[in-house]
Predict the structure of SAM-dependent methyltransferase.
Amino acid sequence: MDDYLELNRANWDARVPVHVGSAFYDVEGFKAGRCPLRGFELDEVGDVSGRRLIHLQCHIGLDTLAWARLGAEVTGLDFSEAAVERARALAAECGIPARFVTADVYDAVEALGETYDIVYTGVGALVWLPDVTRWARAVAALLRPGGFLYLAEFHPFADVLDEETGTTVTHDYFERGPHVWDEPYTYTDGAALAHTRTMQFRHGLGEIVTALAAAGLRLEFLHEHDHTLFRRYGTLVAGDGGYRLPYGAPRLPLMFSLRASAGSASPPAGDPPGASSAPTE
């Protein structure tokens, strides 16, 4: 646990040049006007014109800059300096105004020094954080009264099933980790990585929602989706901008999205009853 942050940062630093050159991220397509945001995200977030938006764990900034193209005043935050440097360069190349800051998400309040109308967190982010209670408090502290968090993520239930068929339970839903992985390649096309080990953490849906409620946020909606962004199981088929089980098969929740708003009161201080005791950096 003491090494998780540096272990993961080295891995994500190594991913930056691979991802920038990958077909998966299609940076050249983005420069030409492609929008990387998913359709349901655009529908559920709504109009962002003139609103201040912070993207936590923004990586190379494609989604961040996509929100800027839609009219938001954007800031992106990531713990990888290599990713932040590339995001800044991309913003300059595209002529898109944006601020990018290097910091761990748990230090976001101090690093940013301001509040926002929208906190946005895209897919594949929470697995890198050991403590979602602490994350939720940071989110609440970043929001202006009346602002909201929008989170789109892979559904934690999808992690318990076998990768070949997606029909057999092979993992314990309530086992949180940490899980140490040693994988030579990232999830995109491209060369092998110089730093291959990562430490990841599972979080159940109830754990995430409870953390947000304990931080003083009000849940507006929680939507579960029957599609995902990659062929998670061998049986998934491509279609409608994602991957899903074949027509006629029983459907599974593969992604979820939620929106939670901040009221006028400050988030509660101290640890709420039943708060996670996971170590943090």
Residues 265-281 have pLDDT under 50 and may be disordered. Helices lie at 4-20, 27-31, 39-45, 62-69, 81-94, 108-112, 132-142, 205-214. The chain is about 25% helix and 25% strand. The CA atoms of residues 231 and 243 lie 6 Å apart.
